[in-house]
Each structure stands twice: as C-alpha cells, then as structure tokens.
C-alpha cells in the first residue's frame, strides 16, 4: 500500500475540471493543542458520533521513543497541515489527530512519522502520506450512504494497519484484506494494542474483495491497477462510494471515485497520485 499523494487538480470523468478546495479554518481544538509543548497540557479531542466509546481514545505514549516532541503535539501539527491543504471533515481530522502514526512505522523512521511522506514498511510496500489517507477517507464520508453515518467499509491493502485504525474512528465496521502474509501479521501486531473491536483483518486476494462482509457503504483501495475489479463494484452497496487509484495514461495514476446508485455507476477522476501496483494472489 502507499501513495505520495500529489495534489495536482484533475478532471472529472465527464471532462469538467475539478475545482480546487479552499483551505478551511483550522479547528480550534487542533490549534490549541499545537500551542502546548507538554503532555500535561494535552487537549481532549471530541468524540466521533456513532463510534463506540472504546475507540474514542486509543492509548497514547507520553514520550514515544525517537519522537523529539510530545506525540500529541507533533500529531496536531500534522493535522493542521492536512486541514490547511483542504480536508475539512471534523471526523477525519479527529481521527488523524487520535491515531499515532509512529506506532505503524519502523523504529529507524519514527522521527519521520508525522511528516507528509510515504515511508517503507517492508516487502516493497509503503505507508501512505497522512494527507492522502485523510483525503481518501474524507471522500468516503462524503457519499450518499454515509449521510446517516458510515457503516461497513472494505479496505483493499491493509499494509501496516495505519489506515485501518483511521477508518475505525469514522466507520461502524471495517474489513481490511491484505495479500502479503508478512504485512497481514505486521498489521495484526500493530493494531492489537489498540483493541479496536470493529476491525476485521483478512489474509486474501484483494482483487476479489471480500464477499463475506458485503454490501459495503464504502470501499477504499491502497493499490492502483489499470481497472477497478468488477468484484468491488458488485460488493458496493447502493448509495455507496468506492475510492481507488487507477492508471489513467502512460502509467500515471489518479484517484477515481465511483458512486453506485439504483441507476448504475457514476465515475469521477480526481487528482494525480502514486500508489503501489494492484496485484492478485496471496504471497
């Protein structure tokens, strides 16, 4: 999984230009947390409506090894940058401020955990940029099916488990499938301390989706192919939304949003991104 998430403005599937999003005002609770340099002044983050109480505040290490500043402070600065780039959904911003990204990267890279970079996680895969994770999750929450709360979500490409943890903050139930056994086990180890009861990890071929949890209000992919597999479209609920990178021309990728209605599918091509290739099989 992973992406560098370049924010170039693309064109919609119908040829219309996708307008740039205006940067919203940074929520006050994020700004206040940046002003604090000590764990004693750490702000309390508002709880996401509809998310079980146990998920609202995963345990936070006061001084994570290798992170120069208090974890909540550097995380809040990361969220400020994400908000300034245009992500406005308060549930997404809260999730990004809550989940400790440094727990999902190798110890040698922990000082880079809150920079807006993709980082290697082994087996030729990467953890996506925080801004890309936030952008894609916000797109899921902007669907018809999510108006009353995002229910069941399928993630293609578990990777190290970071995006799963973010999704668990905003969705009722998350299924995540990974084809690489080593990463599947790594994600299980990374997520176990968080005790997220609404997360289900599956070792399997992501191109086939996971029919056992269908239909899904949202499907999100952390790998890009030439086409979106038909299985994903079949497993998407009416009113649901699929967000995935797809190859558009000359090997370049862009974010593709597919909305499913009772009349069919609507496709919208958004900004350029750079994800690892989508592959089939289990390894």
Automatic annotation (TrEMBL):
Keywords: Cytoplasm, Methyltransferase, S-adenosyl-L-methionine, Transferase. GO terms for molecular function: protein-L-isoaspartate (D-aspartate) O-methyltransferase activity. Its main location: cytoplasm. Residues 1-55 are annotated as: Disordered. It is found in: Cytoplasm. Residues 33-42 have a biased composition (Polar residues). Residues 1-10 have a biased composition (Low complexity). Gene3D superfamilies: Vaccinia Virus protein VP39 (3.40.50.150). InterPro entries: PCMT (IPR000682), SAM-dependent_MTases_sf (IPR029063). It comes from the Bacteria. One of its GO terms (biological process) is methylation. Its EC number is 2.1.1.77. Belongs to the methyltransferase superfamily. L-isoaspartyl/D-aspartyl protein methyltransferase family. This is Protein-L-isoaspartate O-methyltransferase. It comes from Comamonas guangdongensis.
């Amino acid at each position: 999984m992973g992406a560098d998430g370049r924010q170039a403005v693309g064109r919609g599937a119908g040829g219309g230009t996708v307008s740039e999003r205006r940067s919203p005002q940074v929520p006050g609770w994020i700004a206040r947390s940046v002003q604090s340099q000590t764990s004693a002044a750490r702000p309390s983050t508002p709880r996401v409506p509809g998310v079980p109480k146990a998920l609202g505040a995963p345990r936070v290490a006061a001084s994570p090894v290798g992170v120069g500043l208090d974890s909540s402070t550097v995380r809040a600065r990361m969220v400020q940058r994400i908000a300034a780039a245009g992500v406005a959904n308060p549930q997404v911003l809260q999730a990004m401020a809550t989940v400790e990204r440094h727990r999902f990267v190798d110890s040698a890279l922990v000082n880079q955990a809150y920079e807006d970079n993709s980082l290697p996680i082994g087996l030729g895969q990467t953890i996506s940029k925080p801004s890309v994770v936030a952008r894609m999750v916000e797109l899921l929450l902007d669907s018809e099916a999510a108006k009353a709360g995002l229910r069941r979500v399928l993630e293609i490409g578990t990777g190290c488990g970071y995006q799963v943890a973010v999704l668990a903050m905003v969705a009722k139930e998350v299924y995540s499938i990974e084809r690489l056994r080593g990463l599947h086990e790594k994600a299980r180890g990374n997520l176990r301390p968080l005790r997220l009861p609404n997360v289900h990890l599956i070792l399997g071929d992501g191109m086939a989706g996971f029919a056992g949890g269908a239909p899904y209000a949202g499907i999100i992919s952390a790998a890009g192919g030439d086409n979106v597999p038909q299985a994903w479209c079949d497993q998407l609920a009416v009113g649901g939304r699929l967000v995935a990178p797809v190859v558009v021309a000359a090997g370049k990728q862009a974010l593709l949003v597919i909305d499913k209605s009772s009349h069919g599918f609507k496709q919208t091509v958004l900004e350029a991104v750079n994800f690892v290739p989508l592959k089939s099989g289990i390894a």
